[in-house]
């Protein structure tokens, strides 16, 4: 009893908001042997007098223990203890009165059962199957919910007996989906049916056999959405993604429902976006199927455009100096993304005729939000409608350029966005045909001093334009480009000193770098105009909020050096190297997400190309941080549905759905820097040749393991 009380204290500390207390509790918890953990956790779950949050914590920890450490813990238990665990779990499900705890105990039972299906598909917990059948036919709604929850969590529960029980499974689901008295049973049954379909996605005969359950699932989608529950709708998105063929017999009804939900402004933004996601996902996973229903696709396009008009008036917008990440939950971003994807999925032959007239009307609307949305829609469909838009590019570009002088700053911003996107999507045709009009319009827009956000976006569009612009086309504009960029840089440098604003300067510095990169040796006459100011920025922009500016300026200096060549750059090379070395010395003090890191790594490689053999003397300083970055080991994890609820993709995680309520997650933060660092190591070896020899062994040890990759169920996994 004393030990159990101590364990309760430990559970309390594991939930403490104090990091120090929680960390110490985690360390103590990790030292408890597995079998003892199971005993203590089960006792906590079954203790009627324990606080609900303690029981919840115990249930979560027990499920995690079985999920991550089953092989280390469970097989070593005595047979009596294994039987006791199974019995305790089933008793707890039957006796627990709190629905949240019962649900969590069902998750534990499902997790244990998942691990008790042997290699031949035998379920070594037959009592759970009996419990499932008894509960689903029980008068007790709580037990029916429990049975469906376990089946939803682990639809492979029948193992090699699945075929034998097929009719029973179907009857069970149909019966529960028709439970008129209990909407929560209908919802759970629909989710369980979807889960079963998803876990048998490649079994064509089974999908056909269960096709008549789809109308019930669709009905549950509709009902549950209006009850504020989007879980069944999320299941439908998963089916569209993983088993689209299942929807074929009822595709018309599926699309009509999604269209209705998407158009209903009484629903939440998330529900409307999820309904749209079903249609968009089908354009990617079952384009041929969707092309037979173009009337509904044509009706979905105005819904996407309507979402893109859902913008807030914001008086501060034009002056904002910090660019916030896109609000991916917003209707405007969701609508734009959907349009981009459906255009790529179905192609321009279908989509452009559907959208062209809508966009033309929007661009003539007196409300700025419609003009903004129309221009953003043009940006979004460029990739998917490439061939069809290329034929009328003259007409499109002439029209878009008019909006660079629109009275509303956010429309001018959207015009810059469309130009920048088209410069990428239609390169180099775009540059060859429209260089005079586009460069002139962008330079004019960059002079919009009262709207820095517009200025910055015009500079960003100029970067897109010059990156893919043939050198011969850019040379005639060099004088004009350089003059404009220099005037803006000087003005913005003054603003930085006086007001601390930096957004436009960040973009202008990159524009200068891009122009130099394309112009190459033709940039030599302008070198002295820019280099002193750029060096000044690197020397003085040391505050945390100026890290991105400093990183971009380091990039700009190294690109200019590479463009003008060793002879012109050499007088400044030593001073630049000292600045870089100073930053490099502080490298270990930089935070992991410091944007300067990737810029520094790339800049060193350019300096190596410029200086050649003379760069060898700097290797002892450069190689340590470079190897550290190249050695980053990303976090990977096998997560189930419960864990994924606590981790969002905004935290830098990306997921691959493996089915069976499980996903493979990888934390992508740092991966880009790792990839850049590996490229730079190759660059050093190539440039310095024998001068790099003393580092060869450690680089080979690092690089060779990175070359392993393998396929599993048509998914490419790279071992990093």
Automatic annotation (TrEMBL):
Concerning its family, UniProt says:
Belongs to the importin beta family. Importin beta-3 subfamily.
Q: What keywords does the record list, in alphabetical order?
A: Acetylation, Cytoplasm, Nucleus, Phosphoprotein, Protein transport, Repeat, Transport
The superkingdom listed in its UniProt entry is Eukaryota
Task: List the SMART domains.
Answer: TOG
Q: Which species is the source of this protein?
A: Collichthys lucidus
What's the chief localization of this chain? cytoplasm
Q: What is the annotated localization of this protein? A: Cytoplasm; Nucleus
Q: Name one GO molecular function term.
A: nuclear import signal receptor activity
Record's protein name = Importin-5
Organism classification, top ranks?
Eukaryota, Metazoa, Chordata, Craniata, Vertebrata
């Amino acid at each position: 009893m004393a030990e159990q009380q101590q364990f309760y204290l430990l559970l309390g500390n594991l939930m403490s908001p104090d990091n120090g207390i929680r960390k110490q509790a985690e360390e103590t918890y990790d030292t408890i042997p597995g079998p003892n953990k199971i005993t203590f956790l089960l006792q906590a779950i079954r203790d009627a007098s324990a606080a609900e949050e303690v029981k919840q914590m115990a249930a979560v920890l027990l499920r995690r223990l079985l999920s991550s450490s089953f092989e280390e813990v469970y097989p070593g238990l005595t047979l009596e203890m294994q039987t006791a665990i199974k019995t305790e779990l089933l008793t707890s499900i039957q006796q627990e009165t709190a629905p949240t705890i019962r649900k969590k105990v069902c998750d534990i039972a499902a997790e244990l059962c998942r691990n008790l299906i042997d290699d031949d598909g035998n379920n070594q917990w037959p009592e759970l199957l009996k419990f499932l059948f008894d509960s689903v036919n029980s008068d007790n709604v709580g037990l029916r919910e429990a049975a469906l929850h376990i089946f939803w969590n682990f639809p492979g529960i029948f193992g090699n007996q699945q075929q034998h029980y097929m009719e029973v499974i179907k009857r069970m689901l149909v019966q529960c989906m028709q439970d008129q008295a209990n909407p929560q049973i209908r919802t759970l049954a629909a989710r369980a049916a979807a889960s079963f379909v998803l876990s048998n996605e490649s079994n064509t005969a089974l999908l056909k056999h269960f096709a008549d359950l789809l109308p019930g699932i669709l009905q549950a989608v509709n009902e549950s959405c209006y009850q504020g529950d989007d879980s069944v709708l999320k299941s439908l998105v998963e089916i569209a993604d993983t088993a689209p063929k299942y929807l074929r017999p009822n595709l018309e009804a599926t699309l009509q429902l999604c269209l209705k939900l998407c158009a209903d402004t009484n629903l939440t933004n998330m529900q409307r976006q999820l309904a749209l996601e079903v249609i968009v996902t089908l354009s990617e996973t079952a384009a041929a199927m969707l092309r037979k229903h173009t009337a509904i696709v044509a009706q979905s396009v105005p819904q996407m455009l309507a979402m893109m008009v859902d913008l807030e008036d914001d008086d501060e917008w034009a002056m904002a100096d910090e660019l916030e990440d896109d609000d991916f939950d917003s209707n405007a971003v969701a609508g734009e993304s959907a349009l981009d994807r459906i255009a790529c999925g179905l192609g321009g032959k279908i989509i452009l005729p559907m959208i062209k007239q809508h966009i033309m009307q929007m661009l003539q609307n007196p409300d700025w939000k419609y003009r903004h949305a129309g221009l953003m829609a043009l940006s979004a469909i460029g990739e998917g409608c490439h061939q069809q838009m290329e034929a009328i590019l003259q007409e499109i570009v002439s029209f878009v350029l008019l909006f660079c002088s629109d009275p509303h700053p956010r429309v001018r911003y959207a015009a810059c966005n469309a130009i920048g996107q088209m410069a990428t999507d239609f390169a180099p045709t775009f540059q060859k045909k429209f260089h005079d009009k586009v460069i002139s319009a962008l330079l004019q827009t960059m002079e919009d001093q009262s709207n820095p956000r517009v200025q910055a976006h015009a500079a960003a569009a100029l970067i897109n334009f010059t990156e893919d612009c043939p050198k011969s086309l850019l040379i005639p504009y060099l004088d004009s480009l350089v003059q404009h960029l220099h005037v803006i840089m000087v003005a913005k440098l003054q603003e930085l000193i006086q007001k601390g604003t930096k957004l436009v300067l960040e973009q202008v510095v990159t524009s200068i770098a891009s122009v130099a990169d394309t112009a190459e040796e033709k940039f030599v006459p302008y070198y002295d105009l820019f280099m002193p100011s750029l060096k000044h920025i690197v020397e003085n922009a040391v505050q945390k909020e100026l890290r991105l500016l400093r990183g971009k300026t380091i990039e700009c200096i190294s690109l200019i050096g590479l463009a003008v060549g060793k002879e012109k750059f050499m007088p400044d090379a030593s001073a630049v190297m000292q600045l870089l070395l100073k930053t490099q010395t502080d490298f270990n003090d930089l935070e992991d997400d410091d944007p300067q890191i990737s810029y520094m790594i790339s800049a060193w490689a350019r300096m190596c190309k410029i200086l050649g053999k003379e760069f060898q003397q700097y290797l002892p300083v450069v190689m340590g941080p470079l190897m550290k970055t190249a050695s980053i080991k990303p976090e990977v994890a096998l997560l189930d549905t419960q864990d994924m609820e606590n981790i969002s993709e905004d935290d830098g995680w990306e997921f691959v759905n493996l089915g069976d309520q499980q996903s493979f997650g990888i934390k992508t933060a740092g991966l880009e820097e790792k990839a850049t660092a590996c490229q730079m190591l190759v660059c050093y070896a190539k440039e310095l040749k024998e001068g790099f020899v003393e580092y060869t062994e450690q680089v080979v040890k690092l690089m060779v393991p990175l070359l392993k990759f393998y396929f599993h169920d048509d998914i490419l996994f790279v071992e990093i």
